[in-house]
User: Fold this.
Amino acid sequence: MRAFLFACVAAVLLAVGAAYALNSRYLPNASSTVFSSTESVRL
Amino acid sequence: MPTRASLLLCIAVCMFGLAAALTVPAGGPAWAQSVNPTAQSVKEKELLQELRKIEGRSSLPDQRTAVLEQPDGRSWRVFHQVTLRWIGTIAILGMLGVLVLFYLIRGMVRIEGGRSGRTLVRFNGFERFVHWMTAASFIVLAISGLNITFGKELLTPLIGPVAFAEWSQWAKYAHNYLSFPFTLGVVLIFLMWIAWNFPSVTDFKWLAQGGGIVGSKHPPARRFNAGQKVIYWVVVLGGGAAAVTGYLLMFPFYATAVGGFTVGTTNIAAVQLAQMIHGIVGLLFIAIMLAHIYIGTIGMQGAFEAMGKGEVDVNWARQHHSLWLDKEVKKGRVSGGGTPAPAE
Assistant:
């Protein structure tokens, strides 16, 4: 069941990586769409 | 002295005045009649019928704030609060009921003749890794997705609104972010197994004989039988549809520009449509995966080993994938002893 354990770890790492990327300066507009639909329009 | 003519004129004027007074509707003075409280709403109704929404003017940069009325929103609310729950309840509980009934009647499909002691590789490490990454993500997505549709009604009475809100917030984050490994898994599954999943004549013969699960015959099958091919396409197409509509919901300010919708602003109708498709596909996906999990665990002896350790018993392969076994035997990929007898 090593494949299962690796798969779970990979899934978590990918999810955390996506969370980091979407909430960092790399994709600033995307982060606001994930968290709130009212913050995406920047003045 | 009034003449007869002037008298007649006075009577005529009085009669006319009386007639005019009678023609005025009852209910108050004339100024009150100039204000009709329903007139404006009638106009709005006509506007809604024509435009499907009423927009005002807004000084905010986001022009969606100018949408004042959008009656389709009520239809959408009824869908996700009533219709979608019925679809999910019938699909999931119906599938569970069918599986329980099937298990009680048919029981576990056992390896006829028992285990041979010889095994062959069914799925390599990478295939199992991709399968389990997709499966693990899917389970969390399914639970957190069901929470969106059923959680408020089912969980709030049990754990209270505060705990439900906290749980739902984390479930929503998990749902959003685990979509990425899930989508990657669906793409890899599509690429990894597409060569074995095109329909063939063998599949129709397999289906005609109930796949060996219904009945006692075990029709020949290649590496993937017709049932597994159905699961494959459900994952690829259903997972693809869930991913596309899910990302439409996650990134509405970008994605609704796709397909001719207004660029740069959110098309509410497109988002509502995406949510409806996402909900229906997700719930049906869960129901079908229940059948997949059943047949891969308690429904069939030896099936779980294929995705567990990656190897299956030769007798299992002969019973369920005889054409595939023949090829593997010719390639010398069977371990644990001499060459097994060719599959029938």
